[in-house]
Amino acid sequence: MSIISEKELNYWLEHVRVYANNGKVADYIPALANQQPEISAAAFYSFDSECNSAGQVEYTFTIQSISKVLTLALALIQHGESAVFSRVGKEPSSDPFYSIRKLELEEPGIPLNPMINAGALAVTNMIRGRTSDEMVNEMLELVRRLCDDQSITYDEDVAKSEFETAFLNRSLAYFMKQNGIITGSVEELLDVYTKQCAIQMNVKQLARIAAVFANDGRDPNTNNPIIPATVARVCKTFMVTCGMYDFSGTFAINVGIPAKSGVSGAIIGIVKNEGGLAIFGPALDDQGNSVVGIHLLEKLAQEKQWSIF
Ligand SMILES: NC(=O)CC[C@H](N)C(=O)O
């Protein structure tokens, strides 16, 4: 039995939807500027494969920075912890996700963690593949297994729109290339990175990904491993320390579960021993988190006593 009924989810989503008025859709990626701020949806995928959902559940969106958790999982599977953490650190940054300043300040010049853009670019650079297409396919294959849905792909318009305007991400990548943290073509890296960010799904598909992490990397239906438990543990730890950008500390106090957000307005939340939550609401607060998402997580975590602390 799911710990959240559809009725409860509907009730709480209705309750917090108004907060969309306090936020603003991301517009630095032109294709995201068209998102309707009033759209909202939530889904909870429990281990008995029940998926309860509320709001505009069939609406599809891009996962943006939530992909950072998935590329990290893939790089850890492909190369192991010591190789990955020679290129990216393990500490929170307390700066905005796009910030460049600590790259120059911190020794030995590796990005602070894989949840900020610089760190994610370094991790994406490690994905196996001779071409950018092969790297994107590696990523899509993992996401399709996580969602148990072979139809998952990326939104070409959003990927293109970000690729054409990703000047800051290019700067981060060129800076790291100069310092030997990333190798190969920056343009190809940006191609992979913008496509991984543009992977598209609805809130139910996203909730299943969260449920796999909640189930220590195993498929919530069959219990077959998709991600090794050690990798799932590392990913969840980063979600706690850095998953909500420079709001992660406050979020840990107010909500207290591993979570990751993306500038499209999507958030995943991992509920230990129970399942995975996904929320979509494109109006963002100053840190780039969905305002509806944060309010819903605060309400549910309080109501259900979800905090792991
Ligand atoms: N916070 C995010 O979701 C950022 C992802 C976005 N594609 C970027 O690189 O800017």
UniProtKB/TrEMBL annotation:
Q: Which Gene3D superfamilies match?
A: DD-peptidase/beta-lactamase superfamily
**Which EC class heads this enzyme's classification?**
hydrolase
- Which reaction equation describes what this protein catalyses? L-glutamine + H2O = L-glutamate + NH4(+)
Q: Does the keyword Acetylation apply?
A: yes
SUPFAM superfamilies hit by this protein: beta-lactamase/transpeptidase-like
Q: Which domain of life is it from?
A: Bacteria
Q: Which family does it belong to?
A: Belongs to the glutaminase family.
The protein's name in its UniProt record: Glutaminase
State the organism named in the record. Alkalibacillus silvisoli
What gene is behind this protein? glsA
